[in-house]
Amino acid sequence: MGNTSSTLSNVVLDIVKKHAPKTTESDLKIRPSKKGKYSAITITIVATSKAQLDSIYIELTACKHILMAL
């Protein structure tokens, strides 16, 4: 989840693609908050290891554009 912006989905997709290269834009689902200030992004990937998931999580949570990652 992050502040709604024109670049948020690209930032998230770029991070995930580093660790799961087959991820495409069609794997993203974006849901704006009720007032539109925030956007939640869900990405569906086929994970290959716990280390891969941990790497994605670490990089997402370190990104200044992302407020929360689950």
Task: Name the shape in a single word.
Answer: globular
Strand/helix succession:
EHEEH
Helix content: 25-40%
- The helix-and-strand class reads alpha+beta
Which spans of ≥5 residues are poorly predicted at pLDDT below 50? none
- The domain count comes to 1
Tell me, rounded to a whole number, the average pLDDT.
95
| Main beta sheet | 3 strands, antiparallel
| Relative strand content | 15-25%
Rg (CA only):
12 Å
Give the count of helical stretches.
2
Number of beta strands = 3
Strand order of the largest sheet: 1-3-2
Distance between the termini: 9 Å
Account of the 3D structure:
The chain is an alpha+beta fold and 70 residues long. The chain has two helices and three strands; from the N terminus they run E-H-E-E-H. It has one domain. Helices cover 36% and strands 19% of the residues. It has a three-stranded antiparallel sheet with strand order 1-3-2, with helices on one face. Helix 1 runs antiparallel to helix 2. It starts with a strand and ends in an 8-residue tail after the last helix.
Helices and strands, with pairings:
Layout (H helix, E strand, L loop, with lengths): L1 E2 L4 H12 L8 E5 L5 E6 L6 H13 L8
Antiparallel strand pairs: 1-3, 2-3
Looking at this protein, list some descriptive labels:
single chain, 70 residues, alpha+beta, 3-stranded antiparallel β-sheet, 2 helices, 19% strand, globular
